[in-house]
Every structure is written in structure tokens, then in C-alpha cells.
Amino acid sequence: MLGQKLEKYEKDDNVELVIIKGAGRTFSAGGNVKAAVEQKFSLRESRIEKSRLGEYLGLTGERLRGKDVVAAGLATHFVPSQKLFQLEKCLLSINNGEEDVIRSVIDEFSTNVQIDERSILNKLPINNECFSRKSVEEIVDSFEVEAGKKGNDWIVPVLKRMKKASPTGLKITLKSIREGRKQTLSECLRREFRITINTLQTIISDDFYEGIRAIIIDKDKSPKWNPSTLDEVHDEQLDLIFKPFEEHDLFIFGLTTMEPEASNAQTMDNNAINLILARLETMYRDVARLNVGLEKLDTDVASISGRLERVESQRS
């Protein structure tokens, strides 16, 4: 839907400026001007020359701060968050969509970027050395070697998180990032669609649901991944996750050569959708029951605390 709106705005002579913010910031990646704030950003891909920052972020779950995003070339300006409201007011008041004018306005609110010495951008040689390896197994082995060298203590907690992640998820992520470098936007969106649907349908693993159980429902933070090791996740399995759908692939308005009439055939099989929704609904019910239990526990604790306070006051 956003793609349709942007295409409509582009053809509308009355539209001078489009501001995308908040959760929609992902969709501003192709914009002419991109401002970042202090928040951390979770990113799938980066284009700092030929760096492997994309693999690092995708496989470790690490995030870039606003200044890092600018330094990496993923944003054009760094604006302190307390200035955003005033910046937006100024942009809306100028009634001019010329890029030079917009940039000059944002320049007045932006500050120079000095990245923290602990930033991953200052560790690109290590990052490129390790994350350019062919497989996740080789990446982990290489990263472990670097962790043992003097001055590389920062790697230890990052490596620990990698090893606790789903082996299937890690391999899907690496393959997805590397395929994305060679694909158009529409091809990337279709790939992500296939990965999402096949993951929800547990084509090769139920790790997605197991992760929800361990983190959100039971909160034991001890997921039982299946397969449990990287060696058990084979290329043939990954191919099933990335395999194009024969009849129900994604129709992307404005980004495809398909005729609009063909979009009627681009819907998922109803049975598959119902199975996914039923499983998610069950998990949501489990979460709701857990929340009710926690609320009752809070009430019981408050009642006991009140009784203890009364006993203490009687003793004194």
C-alpha cells in the first residue's frame, strides 16, 4: 500500500514533499534525504564500499546508532531528537519540495557526526575478515579466532549471542543477505515474502514458534532449536525456504511487469493461511492466559505485603 501511495505522490504535481518517519523509516531508504536520530537502528544491509557490515548486523542482531547510520552512508543527516518537532514544522511551512532547499533546512538542525570509538565501524577490518567467509560455520570459527586476540574482548558477548541463535535462522539470514546484493527491489521483496511464509508454515523448522514460546510465552529464554546445530542445517533445506511459489508468489504493485489482473491469482492458499493464523492465535491465547496469571500473582503479592505491613505495625 505504501508503494502505491508513493507512486501516486510522485505523479501528483501538487505534492512537494513526503515525510516518512517512525516505524516507516525503513521505506525511506531510497529517499533523497534521510535524517537519523540517537536511536538504535536494526538493519539488514549496508553499502560501505565492499564491507560485510550487513552480514555482521544480520547474524549478530547488533544495531547501529543514529551517528553510525550517517557515517555508514545510510542516512544523510544526524538530527538530535529534541529538534525533530521543530524541523518538521519548518519543512511543512516552506511549501517547497526542491532537494537543495530541503537539505538546507535540515542542515540548520543537524550536527556533525563523531562516531564512538567502540562503534563497529571502527572495527571493519575484523568484520570484513570474518564475515566475508563462505558459510556461517566458517564465520563463527573465524570470529572465535579473533576473539582470542588482545584487544578484542568486545567480540566475546557478540559471539555468545550468535551461538545462542537459531542455527536455521542464521543460515537463512546469511543466504538472504547475499542473494539480496544481486537482486532488484521487487526480487528482494518476493524473496522476503517467501522466507516469511515458508518460515510460518514450518517448512524445515519450527524455530520461529519455539523462539516465541521461549521469549514471550514461557519466558524461560531457553529455546530448543531444531535442528540444534549449524552442521545439521543443509543447503537442500535452505533451498526449500527460498524456492519460488508456483502459483501464489507476491504481486508487487508498481514494481512488477505483471498485469494487475494477474494479482487475483497471487493470493496464498486459504488452507495455508488458516493453518498459520490458527497457530498464531493459539500462541496469543497462551500469552493472554499467562498475563492473567501474572496479574493474579501481582494481586496476591500485594495482599501478602499488606498483611505483613499490618503485622509489623502491630508488633511495633
Question: What does this protein structure show overall?
Answer:
- The protein is mainly α.
- The protein folds into three domains: 115 residues, Alpha-Beta Complex (2-enoyl-CoA Hydratase, Chain A, domain 1), CATH 3.90.226.10; 103 residues, no CATH class; 46 residues.
- The radius of gyration is 24 Å and the shape is globular.
- The protein is built from 13 helices and four strands.
- The N and C termini lie far apart (67 Å).
- The relative contact order is 0.08.
- The strands form two sheets. The chain has a two-stranded parallel sheet. Strands 2-3 form a two-stranded antiparallel ribbon.
- Pathway: Amino-acid degradation; L-valine degradation.
- Its EC number is 3.1.2.4.
- It catalyses: 3-hydroxy-2-methylpropanoyl-CoA + H2O = 3-hydroxy-2-methylpropanoate + CoA + H(+).
